[in-house]
Every structure is written in structure tokens, then in C-alpha cells.
Design goal:
Layout lengths: L1 H10 L3 H12 L3 H8 L10 E4 L9 H18 L3 H4 L1 E5 L5 H14 L4 E4 L5 H11 L3 E5 L8 E8 L9 H12 L9 H6 L3 E4 L1 H13 L14 E4 L6 H10 L5 E3 L25 H10 L3 E5 L6 E6 L5 E3 L2 H15 L6 E5 L5 H8 L3 E5 L3 H11 L6 E6 L3 E4 L8 H17 L4 H12 L1 E10 L7 H7 L4 E2 L2 E8 L4 E4 L4 E3 L8 E5 L4 E6 L5 E10 L7 H24 L1
Parallel strand pairs: 2-3, 2-4, 3-6, 7-8, 7-9, 12-13, 12-14
Antiparallel strand pairs: 1-5, 4-5, 9-10, 10-11, 14-15, 16-23, 17-18, 18-19, 18-21, 19-20, 21-22, 22-23
């Protein structure tokens, strides 16, 4: 390993990370060195993401340069026009992000590939938008999204504007491995600009996204925006300026930003974990909403691709909506507003089944994918047609896309759409809570939950165990059918089988009699099993929402408890 460390130090362009390694070598800190050199950060469909530091198993300038070199070689091997079409690059507000973006641009231009580089921080959806707007061969966002401050990442979009999927992930990874063994070439960015290989994306680019969203018919519901107010936080990320501009364009004048969290700050000083799903992360924006009596308390995550919202209740307190609740509200709302041929909606296998019910009632086209927005948008492009154009997709982890202007989750347009939906309801004397209850009364109350179980890394795969001795019931409920995505097959209780048209994945979905569901899948990044639960309860006559919710929560608690205990046996 000593030779590998010496070679790394010799190649590393960053004095800080060179010194970090030299200090560890001097201290003979074998454990720290092994942690940095035991493997390389794996490049996958989400690109790269990891802790910033020295060595191949960390995010640093050398890893970025090698990754960008691999991407450049792969692009040119796949697309003869890639050099001329170019690559758009944006970055978030973390301390190293701008430098990593500049390094990426220096590598790509040295390979003769034109680069469009944002002049300042940019929300992730702006870069996804920029791929199609500029007609580039790919896009790069330097961001670690909602991960803690010690992280950074390198996210790649393909020329269709969506996140990369197979085989591009493995193809790029192979080229990165080759680049790590080769000399690297970089071009000075001023030289690149003079040669026409670098275009700085200035205010005009940001304005073009703003104008596109303003012209989006799905964001054109200007029903008395003054009837509601909202508090907003960018959570120390990059969303505030554009979020406030889009809301102003839509006529929302009562918008209160959390000043302490408005400006980009990759240290995230006022939140323990900059993810709106984490406990406490929404505290500041809810305080802001309470101070103004606002209708909504809204948040984007630090790269503004996710959207979260808490809604004021009749007693004046605020309650977070789940990602599934926001998703079904959007589905119901957008299907009522879209053109008849714009009716393709989708979600993932672990998100609520309620969207499917809503789509069926509306006569719309519904599709389902594996987890991850890369699947939602790539599959949508495959499935849409002139007669069934894409409208909306969501995943329960707070990701939503409204229309096809951005082929990825976009927390900025979702913010505007949700505010417009709320304002329309308000003018009709209704609240978000009234609308949710109406949806539940029509289709049933769908309650979703997720739990994770730590696994022994040395233990046999849980999925294989469940396949070898399949359960016949879960929590006393008979299993009506099982979707086995590893073998692309649905097996019914009577022995019949059907083929599943989804990519293979180590996932088992148990559909229970009565409509409940359990999804079991191993985590792809750590030794744990993720379990997703869904309980469906119908309303009986004039039964109150509170009583149905209580029954659903009791049923959910029993389902989780008994299923988790069965996995321990």
C-alpha cells in the first residue's frame, strides 16, 4: 500500500489532501490509511457520493479529475457529437463544490468537450433542465444533496436530461478505473474560453429556467394567490433566490423566508442533518410560519430537488405531510387540470398504491418503477406517447416532478404547484386537510410506513431465505400474491404466475388479502433490510376520519411488529 499512497500523493493537485496523507503516513495511522485506500468510491447510477478527504475512497480533487476523465472518454465512445454538444455543469454551496466543478470543466475541455459552467451555485433541477435546454450530451452536478456537511458528490445526467441508468453507469465506471492508471490532462479555463470550449452560464440561463416555469401550463393556476401565506426555508442550500422568484411570478406576496437559513452555507450551522425528513430539520421554518400565522411551512433540501411541507391545522399547530400524502394530492390535483392527453402518472414500488387508484378513477395511464427517480423519468420517456403524454411522477422520499420541463425531481416547481393547489382550495373554503379527507373517503385511507433492520454482513441474504421458505401469511393476513423482482415473476395463492416487466432487483412484494402490502428489499449501500408497509382502511358510512386513522394506525403497528418478529426467527 505504501507505493499506492506515494503515487497518490504525487498525483494529488490539492496541497491540503496531500498534507493530510503525509501526516497519516508520518503518524503510522494504518487504520486511517486503510480506510482511505482499501477501495475506491464506487461510481453508480447516482454517480459518486462520499466523505471529503484524501485518497481514492474519499471525495477530493484527484478523484473528481479521474471521474471527469472517465466520463469524457465514455461520452466520446458513445456519441460522436458529444464534444460539440458539450456538458453542462452546476454545483451546490458546499465548500469544495465550486473547485470540483472547475476541475471537471478543466478535464472535459482538455478532452475537446465543450462545457457550459454556471457562474454561481445552481439548484440541481436547473442543471437537469439545462441538459435539454442547451442540447448537451450530458450534465454534471457537484452536490451531496441533503447529506451531512462532510460529504460531497458528483451526479451525472445523460443527454435525455434524466439521471444515468445501466449500462451507462458501469461503462463510465470502467473508464474511471482506466483514467486512475493514466496521466490526466487539464486545460486552463481562460484558454478554454478563448478557444470556444467554455461558456459561462450567467443570469440569462437562470432566467430561462424561470421563464420556462412561468410558461408551464401546470403552474398557471393563479387562483387568488393572496388567499394564503407561506414560510420557506432553503435549509442553507441553493434554492432561496429561485424559489422566491417563482413564487413572486405566481403572485404569492405573503412569503416569509427563514433568514438564518436563506444563504448557501455548506456547514449547515442551524440543522443537525440538512434533510427535511429528519426530526428537527423543519423546526425553524415552522417557527417562522407560526410567527406569521402562515398556511404552509415549506422547505427545499440543500440542492432544491426535494420539497417538504407542513400544513397549519385547525388548532393553529403545524403537521408535516408525508411524501406519499403530497404525491397523492398532486396526482389528484394535476389530473383535474391537465389536457386530456396529458395523463401519464407514475410512482415507485415502495410508494403509496393510492396514486394508482386515483389514476384509474380519472381514466388516466399509470406506471410503476423500481425505487429512484432515475427510473421514474427514464421509464416515463419510454412509455409516453402522443395519446398519453407525461404529467407527473413522485417517490415517497419527497421527490416530485410536474410536467416534462425537468426530467428529474424538482423541488422548486413542486413548491409553486403546491402553493397554487392550496390557494385554489382556500378560495373554495377548503384546506389541504379537507382535500386529503375527501380523497380518502373516495378511495380509502392509505397509511404507509418504513422500517429498517440491521443485518449481519456475514449472514446469508435475507431474500434467499424468504424465497426458500416462503411465508403463507403475515400478521395473520393471508398472502394473495408475491411479486419477486429478482425472478421477474408474480405468484398467486392458487399457484398461477405472471411475468413482471421491471428490471431485476432483489425485492419481494407481498400483497395481502384486504389490500395491505409489505415490501422487503436489502439496502444497496449498507447491511440492512428495508421494509415498507402499507395499510388500507375503508370508511364505514359516516365514520369520522379520526376513527379510521386510529384503526389504520393500530393495524399498522400490528403489521410491523409481527412482520419484524417473523424476520428474526
Amino acid at each position: 500500500m505504501n507505493a499506492e499512497i506515494a503515487r497518490w500523493i504525487d498525483r494529488d493537485p490539492d496541497a491540503n489532501t496531500r498534507q493530510e496523507l503525509q501526516a497519516l503516513v508520518k503518524a503510522q495511522d494504518t487504520a486511517a490509511l486503510e480506510s482511505r485506500f482499501k477501495s475506491r468510491l464506487a461510481f453508480g447510477t447516482a454517480g459518486l457520493r462520499g466523505v471529503v478527504g484524501a485518497g481514492p475512497n474519499r471525495m477530493n480533487r484527484l478523484v473528481i479529475q479521474e471521474t471527469a476523465t472517465g466520463l469524457a472518454h465514455y461520452l466520446k465512445s458513445q456519441n460522436a457529437e458529444a464534444a460539440a454538444q458539450g456538458v453542462v455543469i452546476g454545483y451546490d454551496g458546499r465548500p469544495d463544490s465550486r473547485q470540483f466543478a472547475i476541475d471537471s470543466a478543466a478535464v472535459l475541455t482538455a478532452q475537446g468537450i465543450k462545457v457550459y459552467l454556471t457562474v454561481r451555485v445552481a439548484a440541481t433541477p436547473l442543471v437537469a433542465y439545462g441538459v435539454n435546454h442547451l442540447g448537451t450530451a450530458a450534465g454534471i452536478v457537484v452536490t451531496a444533496s441533503h447529506n451531512p456537511p462532510q460529504y460531497n458528490g458528483f451526479k451525472v445526467y445523460w443527454g435525455n436530461g434524466a439521471q444515468i441508468i445501466s449500462p451507462h453507469d458501469s461503462g463510465i465506471a470502467a473508464e474511471i478505473d482506466r483514467a486512475a492508471q493514466s496521466d490526466l490532462q487539464l486545460m486552463d479555463l481562460e484558454d478554454a474560453r478563448q478557444q470556444g470550449l467554455l461558456v459561462w452560464l450567467d443570469d440569462g440561463f437562470y432566467q430561462s429556467y424561470r421563464d420556462t416555469m412561468k410558461a408551464n401550463p401546470l403552474l398557471g393556476n393563479h387562483t387568488q394567490p393572496e388567499s394564503i401565506s407561506l414560510a420557506y426555508t432553503a435549509m442553507h442550500g441553493v434554492g432561496a433566490e429561485m424559489a422566491e422568484a417563482l413564487l413572486a411570478d405566481a403572485g404569492f406576496s405573503y412569503v416569509y423566508s427563514v433568514a438564518a437559513q436563506r444563504e448557501p452555507d455548506g456547514r449547515f450551522p442551524t440543522v443537525n442533518f440538512p434533510n427535511p425528513e429528519e426530526a428537527g430539520a423543519m423546526d425553524r421554518v415552522i417557527e417562522e410560519a407560526r410567527a406569521h400565522g402562515a398556511t404552509l411551512a415549506c422547505a427545499n433540501d440543500p440542492d432544491a430537488d426535494r420539497f417538504a411541507v407542513a400544513v397549519r391545522q385547525p388548532d393553529g399547530e403545524y403537521q408535516m405531510l408525508t411524501g406519499d400524502q403530497v404525491g397523492v394530492l398532486f396526482g389528484h390535483y394535476l389530473l383535474s387540470r391537465a389536457r386530456p392527453q396529458q395523463d401519464l402518472v407514475g410512482t415507485t414500488i415502495v410508494s403509496s398504491s393510492l396514486l394508482q387508484r386515483i389514476a384509474k378513477a380519472a381514466g388516466a395511464r399509470y406506471y410503476q418503477t423500481l425505487t429512484g427517480f432515475k427510473w421514474l423519468t427514464n421509464i416515463a420517456m419510454e412509455q409516453q406517447s402522443d395519446a398519453h403524454q407525461f404529467l407527473f411522477a413522485y417517490e415517497e422520499a419527497l421527490g416530485y416532478t410536474v410536467g416534462s420541463e425537468v426530467w428529474d425531481k424538482d423541488g422548486l416547481s413542486a413548491l409553486v404547484a403546491f402553493a397554487q393547489m392550496t390557494a385554489e382550495l382556500a378560495t373554495n373554503g377548503k384546506t389541504i386537510w379537507d382535500q386529503l379527507e375527501a380523497i380518502y373517503r373516495q378511495h380509502g385511507l392509505y397509511l404507509n410506513a418504513q422500517r429498517s433492520i440491521a443485518l449481519d454482513p456475514a449472514a446469508p441474504p435475507v431474500g434467499d431465505k424468504l424465497r426458500s421458505t416462503p411465508p403463507t401469511e403475515i400478521a395473520g393476513q393471508s398472502i394473495a400474491s408475491v411479486d419477486d423482482l429478482k425472478h421477474s415473476r408474480t405468484t398467486f395463492a392458487d399457484g398461477r404466475t405472471e411475468t413482471i416487466d421491471l428490471p431485476t432487483s432483489d425485492v419481494l412484494i407481498y400483497h395481502l388479502d384486504g389490500g395491505n402490502r409489505v415490501v422487503v428489499r436489502p439496502s444497496g449501500t449498507e447491511p440492512k433490510l428495508k421494509c415498507y408497509y402499507e395499510v388500507v382502511e375503508a370508511f364505514a358510512g359516516n365514520e369520522t376520519l379520526a376513527s379510521v386513522q386510529q384503526r389504520a394506525q393500530t393495524s399498522m403497528a400490528s403489521l410491523i411488529d409481527e412482520h419484524q418478529r417473523s424476520l428474526d426467527n
